[in-house]
Automatic annotation (TrEMBL):
Residues 1-20 form the signal peptide. The chain crosses the membrane at residues 291-314, 326-347, 353-377, 389-412, 418-438. Keywords: Endonuclease, Hydrolase, Membrane, Nuclease, Signal, Transmembrane, Transmembrane helix. This is Endonuclease domain-containing 1 protein. It comes from Xenopus laevis. GO terms for molecular function: endonuclease activity. SUPFAM superfamilies: His-Me finger endonucleases. Residues 111-124 have a biased composition (Polar residues). Residues 97-124 are annotated as: Disordered.
Amino acid sequence: MGSAALLCLLLATLPCLLEGRVVPAAEEGFAECNEFFYQGSPPQGFGDPSNAKICQKHNGDKHFATLYSTKDKIPVYSAFAYREAAAASAGGDWLIEPQLDDTGSSRDEGTSTADTSNPIENLGTNQALEGDYATSDYQPGPLFHQAPNALTNSVPLTKTFLDKWAADVDQLVNERLLPHCGNGAFLHLIVGAVPSDVKINYKVSVPGAVWLAACCSDPEAWSMGIIKRTADADNIEDVSVEELEKKLLGGAKLFSSQCGGGAGHPKQKEDSEALTDAEPQAKASGPFFRFIQFLVCIVYEIVKSLLCLVWFLVKQICNLVFGRVYWIWTAVTTYMFALCKVLFNIPCDVLRVFGNVICGLVQILNNICSVVCLILRIPMRFLSDMASFPYYTLCAIPNVGLDILGGIWGVFALGFTAVFGAFGGSFSVASFAGSSFFQRFVGQSEGYEA
């Protein structure tokens, strides 16, 4: 069976059937899930009252234990005991733990977020939900990438960081843990996260770092750890479990009795032993050899002191030379800058003086004109009228001539009209008189005849 199949840590489950029981505070440790810890002893120093203990099970079989922070809505750590198992898919709906939000719930198994047949009271109060990730750049990722899709065992990570973390863990397990721990038969893993101040949806804390601590209990107990910070996805830090506890966990203890007293990885021990074996197996002894050693030490110290002195002198000389060069350079640049500024200001000053002279002459002329006008007391309006009199006189001649001609023509026309009017009136009178006479004469003649 390939090493990929050996990496499963009791996680060969169907996610939709994963069960989780919230362990009451009255029960010791993680109850039936204590077996996932080295010597059955859970880590010490995680006494925050907002932490909830969860024993993850499936079909009656226990798989791993989780300490979940209801304050940060992410797991503090999850513990696994390695066993050989077949790999399984981690797909499916995301699961939540009903008893975290409803302590009175009788449902002691994980429930899919898509299951609405039996609503949970206060859902999302004490745990993260899938909807909390909807509007962010993060996605829920299990602390161990082969774990099922349980939100109580997942933290918000970017896709890039999650892929690199999974590759780092795979490489660690395959190359450094399994070959030195009986192919995982005695291997205990604790994987955790440290929250940062960044939150998504003002609720779920984004981890500032994720970590893994491994403890192998056979043949001789040893341990090691790794740290990967979310701000530096390309690097991973190898540390001892004791260093991990001091750097990230505030001195909490992950393994009972430090997993063999804090012994490091066998490979590191082999390298240390190889360096020790490389030293002379038997050191020479005797007064002569000690005298030679004494001379060598004296010569070494003298040479070291001379080199330090030479290095000090070189530094002082360099500092002096470069200091003077820098001072000269600063002085030259300052002088050139000031000179260029003065040369540039000369034309501006000349133009400014010329402008002031022109303005002064104009002001003098203005004052002279004002004095002359004041002495002569000649109104400007009068001078303007005198200057414009010839123009207006010449322009008025044609109009006056036309007006005179119009008057003469009007007189002739009036006389002509009067003459003809008189003749017409006389004719009318004569006609009227003749007509009246004729009628009277004719009327009398007819009377006589009758």
